[in-house]
Amino acid sequence: MSSLLEAPPYLFSTQQVGLMKIAAIIRFLIACLGGGKLSDIINNAIVRGSPGQNIWPEQRLISLVPGMLFGPAGCILLAFACGNQLPWISIAVGFALVSFASVYTPNIAITYIVHRH
């Protein structure tokens, strides 16, 4: 990413390229601290709608949907922003979406595996 941001039209310095990682750090923290809460909200909605008020491990897989949407959306945004030389903020947002999905989705998968076994 540094070679892209240091070249025209962005002309970022090395320090400015490093600051682009702030978007990723913020989304990592949101995924770590809020990902479990988001998963619980989704799972509670599923349990309320199911007979017997039980949660099965497979029902936890529905919680993967936000990560499965944010990750590809971030990749598409990054590719589109880089290919069309959009403003740097679009690159930061795409990078943040990918970062969120790369932390959130494995956490849900591990929760499913632990619940399953």
UniProtKB/TrEMBL annotation:
InterPro entries from the UniProt entry: MFS_trans_sf
Gene Ontology CC: one annotated term: plasma membrane
TM region(s), chain numbering: 20-40, 61-81, 87-114
Recorded topology in the membrane: Multi-pass membrane protein
GO terms assigned for molecular function: transmembrane transporter activity
Originating species: Penicillium malachiteum
Claim: RNA-binding is one of the keywords in the record: no
Main location: membrane
Origin: domain of life: Eukaryota
Protein name, per record: MFS general substrate transporter
Keywords of this entry: Membrane, Transmembrane, Transmembrane helix
Subcellular localization(s) per the UniProt record: Membrane
